[in-house]
Amino acid sequence: MGILSSLYTGVSGMAAQGEALGVISDNIANANTTGFKASRAEFQDIISKNLKGILGGNQVGRGVKIGAVNPILTQGNVDATEKVTDLAVSGDGYFKVRGSDGDSFTRDGSFHFDREGYLVTNDNQRVQGFQADEKGNILNKMADIKFPRALIPAKGTAEIKMDLNLDSRMEPTKKFDVKDPYSTSHYSTGVEMYDSQGNKHLLSLFFNKTADRQWEYKGLVDGKEVTGGEEGSLAEVCAGKLEFTVDGKLDSQEMTEANFNFKGGALQNQQVKLNFGDAIKAGGKGLDGTKQYGKNSDLIGWNQDGAAAGTITSLSFNDEGNLTAVYSNGQATDLAQIALAKFENPEALFKVGNNRLKESRDSGGPSMGAPGSSGRGKLFAKSLERSTVDLATEFVNMIQNQRGFQANAKTITTTDELLNEVIQLKR
């Protein structure tokens, strides 16, 4: 009977509008949830029967149902914060986290380090990223992001690079004397180096011009710091020769003596290379490094690759997702890089609560990569992505669904009046 079917049609409308109000309520409730994406209820009609079979038209509807509740994956506002471990994704991509229930994904970048040093979410899921090797190079190796709390080992100096100018106007008249090095050398300077135990030593270098375009150098340290040395005197640990071209470029360099034997249990006969530049005879062009020009001798720049033992003093992320540690010995190195997951159909990801989603059959598998690569979003450090819920829009949708619910309720009361008239026919 048509009157009875209208009752069920009205009930379906009330049920669907009620479910839609539930979606709106969930959106409003999560208006301040970090990384939350607003959802939308999408309706589908229900067909009861076709009056003329497959001829088309003349179809009787039986109401409405919720066909899908899909997230609207628009970009939320990215707000700056002052917390080092806050991260936000601008564009496609999800953070990958791992816990007792396996792998899941999130847009909520409000992370922190737990007491074991792991980078975790607020529900203690460990954030995944690409690991770095001992030199700070990022590898394609996925694991939990963690910073080491232990003392990092010392590293003995293996190479000292120097960029000097040695005055070509000097006359080769001085003969070097280790007992009076400053008066018997044409130029002197000092650089720092480390032994295998991480102890710092001042290496004083003294240069003497021996002929046109030819120089000799001696490297001295405090005698009390080397094996067999005497306190209050300087001990020679290295010596070498430099040759230049007629236009002042470095032609060749040679270390003729090396005796880096420091006390305190350090490695004896430590191998240290003094690199004065790209010498021409070694295949270089003589453009970088030490020169011989007609101006005062000077140390322009230098660096060395050794370091003392140290502990982490600070951690920070950059916009490439690299976690960088700064140590008490002045060194800085990359520990890991945040990995982002990209899905072919992110709307089909399965919500599991706590701002996390899981892979589903329809979403496809995650494609992992670095931020900004292959269509993945850009990462912002010290930032969070806010919810995409627009309260004004949600209140308008609430009014529409409320009126839809009331209208469907009205069809039921109208049908009830009609049924009452049918009952009255007997009288």
Please characterize this protein's 3D structure.
The protein is mainly beta and 427 residues long. The protein folds into three domains: 2-74 and 387-424, no CATH class; 84-144 and 342-385, no CATH class; 159-304, Tick-borne Encephalitis virus Glycoprotein, domain 1 (Sandwich), CATH 2.60.98.20. Helices cover 15% and strands 39% of the residues. The chain has two helices and 27 strands. It has helices at 2-29, 391-424, and strands at 39-50, 59-71, 78-80, 87-90, 94-99, 102-106, 112-113, 119-120, 126-132, 138-144, 159-165, 187-194, 200-211, 214-222, 234-244, 250-258, 273-275, 298-304, 312-317, 322-327, 332-338, 340-342, 350-353, 356-358, 367-369, 378-381, 383-385. Strands 5, 6, 9, 10, 19, 20, 21, 22 and 25 form a nine-stranded antiparallel β-sheet that branches. The longest helix has 34 residues, at 391-424. The two termini are 21 Å apart.
Topology:
Layout: H1 2-29, E1 39-50, E2 59-71, E3 78-80, E4 87-90, E5 94-99, E6 102-106, E7 112-113, E8 119-120, E9 126-132, E10 138-144, E11 159-165, E12 187-194, E13 200-211, E14 214-222, E15 234-244, E16 250-258, E17 273-275, E18 298-304, E19 312-317, E20 322-327, E21 332-338, E22 340-342, E23 350-353, E24 356-358, E25 367-369, E26 378-381, E27 383-385, H2 391-424
Parallel strand pairs: 11-17
Antiparallel strand pairs: 1-2, 3-27, 4-26, 5-6, 5-9, 5-22, 7-8, 9-10, 9-21, 11-18, 12-13, 13-14, 14-15, 15-16, 19-20, 20-21, 22-25, 23-24
